[in-house]
Amino acid sequence: MLTQLTVSNYAIAERVELQFNHGMTALTGETGAGKSIVLDALGLAMGGRADAGAVRHGAKRADITATFDVSRIAEARQWLEEHELDDENDCILRRVISKDGRSRAYINGQPCPLTHLKDLGSTLMDIHSQHQHQSLLRKDTHRKLLDEFAGAETLAESTRQAWKTWSSTRLRLHERQQNADEAEARIQLLRYQVEELDRLALEENEQQTLEEEQSQLSHAEAVLHNCHNATMLCTEDDTSAAALVRQALQQLEQLPVEVPALADTIQMLNEAQIQISEAGDNLRHFVDDYDADPARLAEVDERLSAIYQMARKHRIAPENLPELHQSLTDELASLDDGEGSVEKLEAELEAQRAEFDRLAGELSEARQAAAANLDQRIAEELSQLSMPSVQFVTHLSRNKDNQPAAHGSEEIEFLVSANPGQPARPLAKVASGGELSRISLAIQVVVAQTSTTPTLVFDEVDVGIGGGTAEVVGRLLRSLGDNGQVLCVTHLAQVAAQCHQHLFVSKFTESDATYSKIESLDDTGRISEVARMLGGVDMTEHTIAHAREMFSKGQATHH
Question: Which of 35, 164, 41 is closest to 97 using CA atoms?
Fold first, then answer.
């Protein structure tokens, strides 16, 4: 529920602070006083379009803040929690508009995209204006209103997604059929390339392992020659390293006296003799066991040549062949079912069409049931609005050629018959401006009664209505306010007399500047304003008495 609105430097309003209550609030005042400022400001707080002209002349920026109590609005609380913007039961929407037309948006003090204001605002408030009369002439508006009344928005969205999936598959199938020759040529090439790579059967890290083995085998003769010589130098003759170390030890062992300082040296020579002997043994075993197989070298050379040739053929580095193999295999798998590729898409298309038909059928049933109820409810409201002979029909007709569409299986259009015996025709061709206004109000009242939006705003939807009908309009708006919160801009005394809260809008000039003022009226002020609305500038005692009677009746009717 809207609890407070603060407007600074917007249009002709320098500073306005308003508190709002549960129930119906009427905004009245002279033409041009600025009644629409409140509703326009709320529209901006909900993410509406802004321009530099919104900023009061001489100010740098306009600042609009709307505060809502969301304690009983589960959808809004969930949205705030999902976006980590929740602040207990308060929700503060703020819009700052610079004089250059740029604007910034905030939710609970945090900067946010304008789309966030729109998304969250749709859960908090619904604004009905006389300009919606034009949208009421469009079929897409009719479909939207019916789906909302039926509570079928989720089903309608599921149907739209099913159509989108079906449509995408149909396009893919068409492209495949149109490019069948090119696709077959590509499949043949892929099959040949994959078979070649399959035959190559390159294993992981095989190239690197083969290159290392090739290097060893191609230098086998030099390795054997050098290792044999090293063996001889270590242990094989009287001049070997082992013999020379042994001779050095013998010289030290023949010293005439024991020399403690040479003990470590003798130990090192003993260890060196052992190490040299072991090294010689290892070299001997290596030479004996070394496999310098020329045939194996030829095999390795041939295998590497095949790998390098395949890499050159595909113009890639040899180490990238496994990745290419997998990529070509995956592409072939996605294309190569022979005729099965087209058949698979056809099967998918058939299954998706069946799912669309199922959802669209459920949606059609919901729409049919809701249409009958909607027609009856609107007829009841039109009767109260002095249009008992007008027949309202929600007409559902199958799509052309029974083709699936994003909106389902049928077109939806509101039709009216202004006089008994006449066929129902589209609104645009039958209803006059005044009739359209009352029909629009009836539709909005009926739809609003099933709406979960806690705050409903009506901007002069009672234009062109007067007399007893105006009293009925006030009664309808008040009944909506009893169950939630309703704000309405009105020129009708019969409507204003029935509200719970009355805001009076006026303007004045000071120092060559125009200002708008909005004040909450007490009972005495409300009677005076109702009298003004009845009698204009010159109010007689009779006018005031009439206003007092109307006000008393309007308030008493609802108790």
Answer: 41
pLDDT tens by residue, 64-90? 999 999 988 888 999 999 999 988 888
Of 231 and 94, the structure prediction assigns the larger pLDDT to 94
Q: Which residues contact 494 (CB under 8 A, 6 or more apart)?
A: 470, 471, 473, 474, 550, 554
**Whether the model pTM is above 0.90:** no
Query: 274 to each of 144, 150, 263, how far by Cα in Å?
Result: 97, 99, 17
Q: Tell me the per-residue pLDDT of 202-244, one tens digit each, with 9 for 90 and over.
A: 888 888 888 887 887 777 778 788 888 888 888 877 788 888 8
The span from the CA of 162 to the CA of 360, in Å, is 9
Cβ atoms of 488 and 458 closer than 8 Å: yes
Nearest-angstrom CA–CA distance, 430 and 71: 44
β-strand 513-520 against 425-426: which pairing, if any? Answer: unpaired
DSSP notation for 337-348: BTBHHHHHHHHH
For the record, the structure tokens of 473 come out as 């309009």
CB environment 143-173: b (16+ within 10 A), e (fewer): bbbbbbbbebeebbebbbebbeebbebbeeb
Q: Which of 459, 500, 461 is nearest to 483 (CA)?
A: 500
